[in-house]
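In response to the reviewer comment on reproducibility (Comment 2.3), we provide here a single inverse folding case reported in full, input and output, so that an independent group could reproduce the run without further information from us. The structure tokens appear first.
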């Protein structure tokens, strides 16, 4: 086999606001593995400022993988343990090499017989911008919407309150994502206020790494808590188990590019289910290549909850899409 990679800078159509700042572009890398006439494509979706493998020698390690592409699977996995997005790109490319024609996991999804329910994502911004996005998602018949919060909670709460007056819990599921924006004391107040608004869950109310504080919040919260950034950089299975047993969250959220790909996600799912913790899968601003690979994997997991899969519509220079969104249903349309 031979391998090579290519860097690609994705440009946002409109800056995306989060509590960590405004995103205008997203760096990513495509990995190509060839075996004779066959070719497999994967995406190493590094997320600068968030990925565990946001390190200075990232491209060197990617080149190392290309140079050692014929090494044993387990040997490669050990070498790439601290580079989850590179490992995920390798897993994708090898799956695609096996099946070809944009296929990673053959299923009723890739045959066009079934779809995946997704949530609609609302980016941060001023109230009018958030309302504009919400109105669009409602017109598209989304039944689950996720709002980014944590920049101006008082204003954000007004938006949610207004939304709830029109759309009760049985008509619209609302999730919020704080990206660790709140202090421990502020989080307790926000969790109470969210409960009065019938919010499904809040992602990462406080910064990752504060296990004991998060455990207290999860034990006492009237609003279910989902761990997101908390999982990043936790590699050892024993430490994963320790984290879940210590915090006992209501949910965990799996971004394959950030938690070690298919194998890393499988490990987290097995541990979560052993501890009666629910979960769902989310993309992390990958191009359409990575999004397709994540969607096909997600379908095989048969999780009935709305999944956090993007639609590839955020970027001006995305790759061609194999996916099509009809309402809140994501279909494979190759």
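Designed residues, in position order:
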């Amino acid at each position: 086999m031979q391998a090579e990679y290519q860097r690609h800078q994705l440009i946002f159509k409109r800056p995306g606001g989060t509590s960590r700042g405004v995103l205008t572009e997203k760096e990513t890398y495509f990995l190509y593995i060839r075996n004779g006439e066959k070719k497999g494509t994967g995406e190493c979706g590094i997320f600068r400022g968030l990925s565990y493998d946001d390190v200075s020698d990232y491209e060197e390690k990617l080149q190392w993988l290309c140079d050692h592409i014929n090494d044993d699977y387990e040997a490669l996995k050990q070498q790439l343990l601290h580079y989850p997005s590179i490992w995920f790109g390798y897993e994708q490319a090898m799956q695609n090499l096996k099946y070809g024609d944009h296929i990673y996991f053959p299923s009723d999804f890739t045959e066009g017989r079934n779809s995946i329910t997704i949530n609609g994502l609302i980016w941060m911004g001023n109230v009018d911008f958030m309302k504009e996005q919400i109105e669009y998602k409602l017109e598209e018949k989304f039944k689950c919407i996720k709002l980014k919060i944590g920049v101006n909670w008082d204003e954000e709460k007004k938006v949610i309150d207004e939304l709830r007056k029109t759309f009760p819990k049985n008509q619209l599921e609302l999730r919020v994502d704080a990206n660790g924006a709140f202090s421990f004391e502020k989080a307790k107040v926000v969790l109470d206020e969210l409960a009065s608004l019938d919010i499904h869950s809040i992602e990462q109310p406080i910064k990752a790494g504060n296990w004991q504080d998060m455990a207290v919040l999860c034990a006492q919260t009237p609003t279910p808590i989902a761990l997101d950034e908390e999982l990043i950089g936790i590699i050892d299975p024993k430490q994963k188990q320790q984290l879940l047993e210590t915090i006992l969250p209501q949910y965990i959220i799996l971004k394959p590019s950030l938690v070690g790909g298919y194998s890393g996600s499988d490990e987290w799912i097995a541990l979560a289910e052993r501890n009666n913790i629910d979960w769902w899968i989310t993309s992390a601003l990958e191009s359409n290549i990575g999004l397709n690979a994540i969607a096909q994997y997600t379908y095989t997991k048969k999780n009935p909850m709305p999944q956090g899969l993007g639609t590839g519509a955020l970027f001006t220079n995305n790759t061609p899409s194999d996916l099509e969104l009809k309402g809140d249903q994501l279909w494979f349309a190759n």
